[in-house]
Amino acid sequence: MSLPVHLVDDLRGAAVGSTVEVTGDEAHHAVAVRRLRIGEEVVLTDGAGHRVVGVVASTGKRVFTATVSSAEVVARPEPSFTVVQALPKGDRGELAAEVLTEIGVETIVPWAASRSVAVWKGERAVKAHAKWQATAREAAKQSRRSWLPSVASLTSTAEVSGLIAAADLALVLHEEATTSLASLTLPTGGVVVVVVGPEGGVSPDELATFEAAGAVAVRLGAEVLRTSTAGLAAVSALLARTPAGTESSRVGPGYSTVKSLVSSSGPEPSVPPDGSAVRARKV
Superkingdom of the source (predicted)? Predict the structure, then answer.
């Protein structure tokens, strides 16, 4: 059975034999909901590569302490994956944030695409962004990540172009693309950007803008995925073809099943961008 994982603010000074204090909502959930007990082992990470295993030494209403039994620093996985996710309808944005975190994406970028049905403005934007962040945080714990992904602020098409121009490889999922994912030469380091469109797909103007910035339009196959899962399929396929796909720092419970579906030795998966950069099914 896997040990529970808890996020703390900073573990840079943690060493074997030292005591780490966990407070706030994280501790409350562990003690009041999970019924954490003295003597239990836990895994603590600060989301910045520092990770320790400890034994619970004390508990309170909103606090617990653990004595460190082992400590390590986990290298940041390479290459780093950034997924530009067009705003989907309803709560599908949170689903996208969840599965992208579980597969190992480092940065999730909400994008206000021209064909996005959802609109983030004012208080709604603040709440929606907070939900994406909270979802990514919980997914990082579930998938036992040592590096917590970041959720960027709502991004415009012009800002996405800037991300593409700075990337080592940038891809736009599109149903009419003639380039296959398998034909690309992938970098072993740096940043890979994957752009996932909304339910109505990436518009011709947006595609032209992204290609001018250096992106390559690609397709995964013949079927159509929803915008909330297209990024997962694309990154899974890419990870299977890079050294990062076998790094233990990126793989945890919940990863192996997805990655086994996209074997680098098998045929290219017949899973294309969905509503993402193609015309997706209406939900």
Answer: Bacteria
